[in-house]
């Protein structure tokens, strides 16, 4: 396994010997991983590589068969409120009766004691999150009446309104047009500048190379993890995707692709 020496920076997420299985089939095998705090990290790998499983394990939604997980130096049990999640679009129940505004407000609920009603501060945070994703005008629209890209942005607003130091996003650009993608990538960079850490499952290897400072290449095991510049190379990509995949600068800048020459 090609592995970069870990940067001295504090880790936002640390996994040690983590194995996760569905029944007796492992989806993640013996994962050791440290993601630096304050990084914009991409998680890449083929379909079925365990990317979503890794995100859900970091969130405590799936229990590993073995291993330890820490968020900002503390066990998962103490990580409440530290991680906000944007799920993969296909895994959401879009018939859930909520408006865009409800969704943004939902993100603030975790910081409220159970007895306290939603107040001005929560409403302000929800509105700010909607502004960040340019959805203020659609606040009253039910989420099942949104376009795919608007749905993604509504879930992003829910995550932003949580004010969590770590944002975990599972394929946030699915169904998003190019200009919205650029706006959201700008938003990610601003969030990082403000000290947040972001971990993003993302398929476009060219964007990963241009914008993400840390990369994790996953295929059940961690094939490589480290600064993108030295990690996202042909050799590691082949080890992750198989021999027919790679980065070819002559190809259109979209997604991992068949390495056959044009
Ligand atoms: N609930 C489940 N029950 C059983 N097997 C599952 C379950 N969820 C995922 N798997 C299996 O675990 C493996 C990893 O799935 P996972 O969803 O983590 O992959 P992924 O890398 O996110 O893929 P994709 O790019 O398609 O989203 C796959 O082989 C998948 O079929
Ligand atoms: Mg997935």
Q: What structural keywords apply?
A:
262 residues; 4-stranded antiparallel beta sheet; single chain; Rossmann fold; binds magnesium ion; alpha/beta; binds adenosine-5'-triphosphate
Q: Report the structural category.
A: alpha/beta
Individual helix count:
8
List of distinct ligands in this structure: adenosine-5'-triphosphate, magnesium ion
Run of helices and strands: EEEHEEEHHHEHEHEEHH
Distance between the termini: 31 Å
Radius of gyration from the CA trace?
18 Å
Please provide the count of β strands.
Answer: 10
Strand percentage:
15-25%
Q: Quickly name the level 1 CATH class.
A: Alpha Beta
Query: What's the rounded overall pLDDT mean?
Result: 86
Q: Going by CATH, what is the homologous superfamily?
A: P-loop containing nucleotide triphosphate hydrolases
Shape: globular
Number of domains: 1
Unreliable residue runs: 248-262
Q: Main β-sheet, in a few words? A: 6 strands, mixed
Q: What is the spatial order of strands in the main beta sheet?
A: 6-7-8-3-9-10
The second-level CATH architecture is: 3-Layer(aba) Sandwich
CATH topology: Rossmann fold
Helicity level: 25-40%
């Amino acid at each position: 396994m090609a592995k970069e020496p870990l940067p001295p920076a504090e880790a936002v997420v640390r996994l040690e010997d983590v194995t996760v299985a569905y029944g007796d089939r492992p989806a993640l095998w013996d994962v050791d991983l440290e993601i630096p705090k304050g990084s914009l990290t991409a998680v890449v790998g083929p379909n079925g590589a365990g990317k979503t499983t890794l995100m859900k394990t970091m969130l405590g939604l799936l229990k590993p068969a073995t291993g330890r997980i820490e968020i900002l130096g503390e066990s998962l049990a103490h990580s409440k409120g530290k991680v906000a999640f944007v799920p993969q679009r296909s895994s959401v129940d879009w018939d859930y009766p909520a408006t865009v505004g409800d969704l943004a407000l939902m993100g603030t609920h975790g910081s409220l004691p159970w007895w306290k009603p939603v107040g001005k501060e929560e409403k302000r945070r929800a509105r700010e999150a909607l502004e960040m994703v340019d959805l203020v005008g659609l606040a009253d629209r039910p989420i099942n009446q949104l376009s795919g890209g608007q749905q993604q942005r509504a879930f992003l607003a829910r995550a932003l309104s949580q004010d969590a130091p770590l944002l975990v996003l599972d394929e946030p650009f699915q169904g998003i047009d190019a200009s919205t993608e650029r706006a959201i990538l700008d938003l990610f960079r601003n969030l990082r500048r403000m000290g947040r850490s972001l971990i993003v499952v993302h398929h476009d290897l060219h964007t990963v190379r241009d914008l993400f400072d840390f990369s994790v290449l996953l295929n059940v095991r961690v094939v490589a993890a480290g600064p993108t510049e030295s990690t996202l190379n042909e050799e590691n990509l082949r080890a992750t995707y198989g021999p027919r995949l790679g980065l070819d600068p002559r190809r259109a800048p979209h997604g991992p692709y068949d390495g056959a020459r044009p």
